[in-house]
Design a protein that fits this description.
Elements (H helix, E strand, L loop, with lengths): L1 E6 L5 H12 L4 E6 L2 H7 L6 E8 L3 E2 L1 H9 L2 E10 L2 E5 L9 E5 L2 H4 L1 H10 L4 E5 L2 H9 L5 E6 L9 E3 L9 E9 L16 E8 L8 H10 L4 E9 L7 E10 L3 H15 L1 E3 L3 E2 L1
Parallel strand pairs: 1-2, 1-3, 7-8, 7-9
Antiparallel strand pairs: 3-4, 3-11, 5-11, 6-9, 6-10, 12-14, 12-15, 12-16, 13-14
């Protein structure tokens, strides 16, 4: 049976997304859980055929570590899934103002910023401890130490806590997008294949200029614009080599009938700036 690497432990939003994806496509797939995004990525191509990775949230934007690992690892993006995300607070305290420690997952903190600011106003001395997963936050608070609490997925069991508060997310319309990746170290050409069925598709790419010069980014964007190619995202990530040098992550939204035109633009950009196509899949 094939395995899918998932950011764990069980009960996380990643777990929910993975189970929803497997059920939707009736896949015979075993889920294997890892403690961090790095570990999840590194399992792809080793003991897992696929990996389901969080990439973007409505409120907190892109997961920067995911973008870096997409470029560093030899993977292909083959699909995506979007799920609703809401949070609650559980705490071992009779009053919010008495909270001394709050556990919160690193991306959840950005989605519950207004609530966390309110806690800080009540108690400026409160300590915010960042965790790798929402369920880690939950289990830390579940230990029952007085004055400790956690921001957790809205669906978890709040029994046993002296304080429970729903809807601590900054917006009721909050979603997280996950990408499904697979190892492509032995099949790199697969990134260039047109989807088999017709329809709307997404193509994630990285552009990695070797040298910086005035008008470089404009030149890249103009190549897409002249061919009426729609870019729905552009993010810069440091090359980690020289200060002020960046990779550019972009997402193309198009129809499969535009595939050849997109590949033409990609080849022109690649000659000058080194372009890496991460996949082409239907949405």
């Amino acid at each position: 049976m094939d395995k899918m690497a998932v950011l764990g432990p069980t009960g996380t939003f990643s777990d929910c997304a993975a189970k929803k994806y497997v059920d939707a496509y009736q896949m015979d797939m075993e889920l294997e859980y890892f403690n961090s995004i790095d570990e999840t990525f590194h399992a792809v191509g080793e003991n897992c055929r696929f990996g389901l990775i969080p990439i973007e949230n409505t409120l907190d934007g892109y997961v920067q570590r995911t973008l870096d690992l997409m470029l560093e690892m030899d993977v292909t993006v083959v699909d995506e899934i979007i799920i609703p995300v809401q949070f609650s607070l559980v705490a071992n305290t009779e009053n919010l103002s008495d909270m001394k420690i709050l556990y919160v997952q690193f991306k959840a903190a950005g989605q519950c910023r207004e609530f966390i600011d309110r806690l800080r106003e009540m108690n400026p001395e409160i300590k915010i401890i960042t965790t790798e997963s929402n369920m880690e936050s939950y289990h830390m608070a579940q230990a029952g130490r007085p004055g400790e609490g956690a921001i957790v997925p809205a669906y978890v069991d709040a029994e046993g806590f002296s304080w429970f508060e729903r809807n601590v997310t900054d917006s009721s319309d909050n979603y997280t997008r996950f990408i499904l990746v697979r190892d492509s170290s032995h099949d790199a050409g697969s990134r260039l294949k047109k989807p088999r069925r017709e329809g709307n598709m997404k193509i994630p790419v990285f552009v990695s200029p070797l040298v910086d010069r005035p008008g470089m980014l404009f030149d890249i964007l103009r190549t897409f614009n002249e061919r009426r190619i729609n870019l729905v995202a552009i993010m810069s990530r440091p090359t980690k080599k020289i200060m002020g040098t960046y990779h550019f992550y972009m997402e193309i939204d198009a129809y499969t009938e535009d595939f050849d035109t997109i590949m033409e633009a990609a080849r022109l950009i690649d000659v000058k700036y080194n372009l890496k196509i991460m996949g082409a899949y239907l949405v």
